[in-house]
Amino acid sequence: MTALRGVHEFGKRAMWPWLCCAVVLGCRQSDSQAGTAGDTIPSLSSMDQILLAASKVILPPPGLAPADLPDPNSPGALAIARYCVACHALPAPSSHSATDWPQVLRRMWARMDGLPRRFNVPVPTTGERVVITRYTVANALKVSGANLPQGPGRERFERTCSRCHELADPRQHTPGDWVAVVTRMSQHMEQMVGQPLDAQELQQIVLYLEGASKATRRP
Ligand code: HEC
Ligand code: HEC
What we know:
Elements: H1 2-9, H2 12-28, H3 46-55, H4 75-83, H5 101-114, H6 126-138, H7 154-160, H8 178-193, H9 199-216
The structure holds heme C (HEC) (2 copies).
The site of one heme C has 21 residues, from α8.
């Protein structure tokens, strides 16, 4: 957020040209995302090239279809599928906690409202914004409480798994399910920040989550 505030301070007029480029390019290349962050457009200044590459880091990863959204025919899911795919892949409501969603959405409203109309990006009404906010908050990531169980791998889990969203609650999956979730997160890390977990990190985090899920599970 600090970096983003900095961008706003340096002026809306200076910001929109590169954002538009980022948005257009993001649409064309949404399959590869962070993997193409190094691509350059010769006509852009070097600062614009960096801003363009930076804007493609931590975009929602590709792969989610509207039918995969929780309660896919609800007004919230339909609104996300309509308004949230113009600039990047469909975002999952579980990608942020209920506490974080309102500020993520505030950034998205600002981007939609400020984008020149010639891009024809649909802009939700105030009522639709309320529907989207309620839906993301209701289906948000479940976060861990303050008392995570001790155990080897806890520090690595805390450090690695809080990079894109708040720390997930170990109890929300059975011990046997965590390996699939962490493997998927490693794929997201490769797509969104260009670096997956290595085999040792993956194993350590899975072992910790399996143990923490067991330790805190009610019989
Ligand atoms: C006008 C283009 C545009 C639209 C429309 C848009 N986004 Fe984004 N979104 C961006 C850009 C640019 C980024 C990367 C910079 C950032 O994170 O602010 C981004 C990043 C994201 C991220 C990843 C960043 C993070 O903090 O995890 C999520 C999640 C997200 N958008 C959700 C949404 C949702 C939900 C909607 C619909 C309500 C939406 N976006 C609509 C431009 C857009
Ligand atoms: C590079 C960004 C990123 C990092 C780092 C990351 N996540 Fe995620 N996480 C996501 C996104 C995007 C989603 C929503 C899409 C999905 O569920 O695949 C998500 C959703 C989740 C969910 C909710 C969905 C579910 O299946 O229950 C859990 C739990 C989760 N992450 C756990 C973790 C753990 C554990 C780690 C550390 C290994 C981690 N995340 C690291 C991006 C990330």
